[in-house]
Amino acid sequence: xxxxxxxxxxxxxxxxxxxxxxxxxxxxxxxxxxxxxxxxxxxxxxxxxxxxxxxxxxxxxxxxxxxxxxxxxxxxxxxxxxxxxxxxxxxxxxxxxxxxxxxxxxxxxxxxxxxxxxxxxxxxxxxxxxxxxxxxxxxxxxxxxxxxxxxxxxxxxxxxxxxxxxxxxxxxxxxxxxxxxxxxxxxxxxxxxxxxxxx
Length: 199
Description:
Layout: H1 10-15, E1 22-25, E2 28-31, H2 36-54, E3 58-61, E4 65-67, E5 78-80, E6 82-86, E7 106-110, H3 117-130, E8 134-139, E9 144-149, E10 157-159, E11 164-166, E12 175-177, H4 186-198
Parallel strand pairs: 7-8
Antiparallel strand pairs: 1-2, 3-6, 4-5, 6-7, 8-9, 9-10, 11-12
């Protein structure tokens, strides 16, 4: 087995057997912290966004897609839990190999129990600086979404599960209830079971 003696590059990480578990930030590997719940939520986001790809709006990319689109650090790449690139910015579709070299229009970061607030905030800041128009930070435990916009990065919006999430001008026509991104709450299941027993 060969040993890498030079600073890690994005191509080095691609060649690693478990490279899909990592991002490369400031020259260091950062392991992505995923959980069963966060992976499920990321998949639900993909399913809800999927029709917009079918309608020709652009390209929806799944959990783990890597973006090497940070001009201040050409070797850095980040992995999005879900992302969207408009068709007019990538008319030929996902035809390349390796890391995507342009910033997505929308990126979703699904928080897992082991993610630190610092790491999440740093990732959001990197995405916005790279030109991502909208970043969704999805918190399954709190059942909330915080929306960060390139147009006004100092004023994020926090949505509760009863609020409506929209496409923010990036995905025209997209709307869903925030709670639709999450599995049914445990207390809802218990309430339904209790109601069934009393009928």
